[in-house]
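Hi R.,

As promised on Friday, here is the backbone we talked about, encoded as structure tokens. Could you run it through your design pipeline when you get a chance and send me back a sequence?
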């Protein structure tokens, strides 16, 4: 059993980890930047250490400061949350070098899935379906044009070290290639300090469906069913749900088996997610693996009544998992409540929250770190919190979500609540008729409740 865990993160995920640790009898240490001194994760942890100025590079990405905070508080483990250093193999290695347990996979596992080309090659060897494309990084523009002709347009260019839609461009015809190629490389270099680009066939009308998995240190791997993350804007997820309205029992079994193959191929330990693209014919293709807890993990927790953070910690302590595959018993939907203006291209809206009323009632969960008077800083992700509803059926979960959104009052900053309210009333969404392109034609109207 760990005696004390330092959470190398901020906001709602830090608070989420603190809560589970407290239930397990584990002391916690929060780290924070000067901009986060009044955040709830700082207040609720047993100890808190300031690690730097507001900019992420000076605080939440500052490995020496985090290691120092771990050592001065005598923490014996670090939970990285998601984002920041969660999939940084160097950080995981440094933790190990200092005899601090990194609650997550090993550096080798992170590296095996962190580079998209390496991950794709590993999946091919493991027999997991992958999107047709090139075998390695593109050497130059001419090679890109030649390969695109061979594969057939449309194609998509992707950064090998990418994530969050950075360094990614869809090319519909050859005349667009030069600009897309140079832009993708420049964006990849700026975002990841790695301008490596590769090419895949662009899957039209796709669903983004991911499989939650868990693996222990004894070679066991299980899956915990799927989440549909197709409602997204510029590759950023806004709504997630489980089970997917597009899923069949046969497809779930096949995707679950593929996810277990993918994780077993690298002897994966910890919780993680295998992300797939699924076309309109229900053919599925490996997209990437996230070697960390996901923002949307609570959707899975609600449909199978399972604490994924607790499982992650227990795996890190060397405990065995059951090896049982889990199927959804309920239906859950998550709306990400961001400090963004949905009427103005989702522009970030940092500032002070003057009034806050969070919804409640049966089937409603709110994971958040904000309160009335809290100032949302401009330096980090704009997420205020996550609103999750769970019910016996999808229709009931949507109805509960609409009711809960109507009760969610946040005054002082713009939020995505009006967007979600309109989405819950959208006929195509309610019928499950959507792909990752759904929001390209979704029009915000001024009327909400």
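Update: got your reply. Pasting your designed sequence below so it's all in one thread:
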């Amino acid at each position: 059993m760990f005696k004390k865990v330092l959470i190398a993160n901020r906001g709602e995920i830090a608070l989420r980890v603190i809560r589970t640790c407290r239930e397990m009898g584990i002391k916690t240490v929060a780290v924070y930047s000067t901009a986060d001194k009044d955040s709830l994760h700082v207040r609720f942890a047993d100890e808190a250490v300031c690690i730097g100025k507001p900019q992420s590079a000076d605080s939440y990405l500052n490995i020496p400061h985090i290691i120092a905070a771990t050592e001065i508080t005598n923490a014996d483990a670090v939970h990285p949350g998601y984002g920041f250093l969660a999939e940084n193999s160097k950080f995981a290695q440094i933790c190990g070098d200092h005899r601090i347990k990194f609650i997550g996979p090993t550096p080798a596992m992170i590296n095996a899935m962190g580079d998209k080309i390496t991950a794709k090659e590993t999946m091919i060897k493991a027999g997991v379906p992958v999107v047709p494309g090139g075998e390695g990084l593109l050497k130059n523009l001419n090679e890109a044009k030649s390969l695109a002709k061979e594969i057939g347009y449309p194609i998509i260019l992707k950064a090998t070290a990418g994530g969050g839609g950075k360094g990614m461009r869809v090319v519909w015809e050859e005349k667009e290639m030069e600009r897309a190629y140079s832009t993708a490389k420049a964006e990849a270099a700026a975002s990841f300090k790695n301008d490596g680009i590769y090419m895949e066939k662009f899957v039209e009308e796709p669903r983004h469906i991911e499989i939650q998995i868990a693996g222990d240190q004894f070679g066991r791997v299980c899956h915990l069913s799927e989440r549909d993350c197709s409602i997204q804007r510029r590759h950023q997820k806004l709504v997630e749900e489980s089970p997917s309205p597009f899923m069949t029992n046969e497809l779930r079994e096949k995707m679950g088996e593929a996810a277990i193959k993918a994780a077993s191929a690298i002897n994966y330990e910890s919780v993680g997610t295998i992300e797939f693209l699924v076309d309109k014919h229900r053919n599925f293709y490996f997209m990437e693996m996230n070697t960390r807890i996901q923002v949307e993990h609570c959707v899975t927790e609600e449909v199978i009544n399972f604490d994924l953070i607790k499982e992650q910690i227990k795996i890190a302590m060397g405990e065995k998992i059951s090896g049982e595959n889990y199927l959804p018993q309920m239906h859950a939907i998550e709306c990400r409540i961001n400090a963004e203006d949905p009427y103005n291209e989702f522009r970030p809206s940092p500032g002070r929250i003057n009034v806050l009323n969070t919804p409640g009632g049966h089937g409603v969960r709110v994971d958040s770190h904000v309160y009335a008077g809290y100032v949302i800083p401009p330096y980090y992700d704009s997420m205020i919190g996550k609103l999750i509803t769970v019910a016996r059926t999808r229709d009931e979960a949507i109805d509960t979500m609409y009711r809960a959104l109507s009760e969610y009052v946040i005054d002082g900053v713009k939020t995505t609540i009006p967007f979600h309210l309109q989405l819950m009333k959208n006929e195509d969404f309610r019928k499950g008729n959507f792909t990752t392109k759904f929001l390209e034609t979704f029009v915000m109207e001024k009327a909400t409740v």
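One thing I noticed while checking it: The chain has three domains: 4-103, 132-201, 207-440.

Thanks again,
M.
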